[in-house]
Amino acid sequence: MMTTNKLGLYLHVPFCARKCRYCDFLSFGCSDSKVLSEYSQALIREIRIRSKDWCFRDVDTVYIGGGTPSLMSAWDMGKIMDALRENFNIVKDAEITIEGNPATLSDEKMERYLRKGINRLSLGVQSFENDVLQYLGRIHNKNDAFTSFQRAKKAGFSNINMDIMFAIPGQSMKMWKDTVRQCIFLKPAHISLYSLQIEEGTEFYELYKDGKMEAVPEIQDREMYHQALAMMKEAGYKHYEISNAALPGFESRHNLKYWSYAEYLGLGLGASSFAGGSRFKNTSRMHEYLTAIREHVPPVDQESIENYSQREEMGIFVFTGLRKAEGFSLDHFHHVFRKDFFDVYDEDILKKYKGLLICADGRLYLSEHGMDVSNRIMAEFV
Length: 382
Ligand code: SF4
Prior knowledge:
This protein has 382 residues and is of the alpha/beta class. It is built from 16 helices and 16 strands. 40% of the residues are buried.
């Protein structure tokens, strides 16, 4: 899995038809076409503003996430893609992903995406059980997921990701295995599997806090995770990152940038960037975002600009790199920081996490069991 020094672009669309009960992402329940259209205009203006500083960099990945980008009209999304191509040097074989909710994808949208160069579709399926989908507050049912997948294939998408979710209260192992089985049956090129996290600020958190909802025990969570990975491996998927598996050659090139200390520029409300050696974020307040765009200034939240020490950056390098099954190369660490890894970190850490943290062939990585306790091991480096 190679990553390049080319730039990745992330575009955030912070609208969803309805807020899911577990979601703490930066998104608002709104499907007013006028609001969505106004936001797309602002995004296009931001593309022009930001490209002035970044147009000299080749871009080899674009990720349009949210929120629900597929809520935007095909026309607006086409205009965003035109603006990207006019203002950034997007290389010929760039990976260009859009996230879509199965209830919001029409044939017209998929055809336009493909015509405008979007070549990867990430479907938020979550489950193939209608009861589970309803419990999560999703706006789609399992038929929408099947239909949108088949339509996407028919339209010409060969690179499709499916997000699926486990450790949901009330979801039995049988239900989870059925979801994994149906997902594998459709054979998307890529599968992301996430365990439900009860995050502050969500409807689920309120229920949990009031004792009306219980989190799935850790042991059950891990059983579900390993069961799914075993099924995916048997079906030919490679588990290449803690939460991701892909058919050979279909690893997410954009997400690999996040785990390989590569640079990306975030556009849109609240989008994060790591570019030009700095970390910064756009404002998460819509009125501030729109005002900055109207005044032709980058909508960066000045308080978000982080100048981490070299040691902190090393921690980020290790923390993100260990998410990949292949970990990171010690040469890459040296190339970035001009220091040997074991001059910075005590080699005894390998003894402490014997069998969990492995150093071999010039790479440092977690074993499969190491991934189960990744947070504890990664915390040693930050
Ligand atoms: S569709 Fe995704 S971003 Fe939107 S509310 Fe649901 S989980 Fe959050």
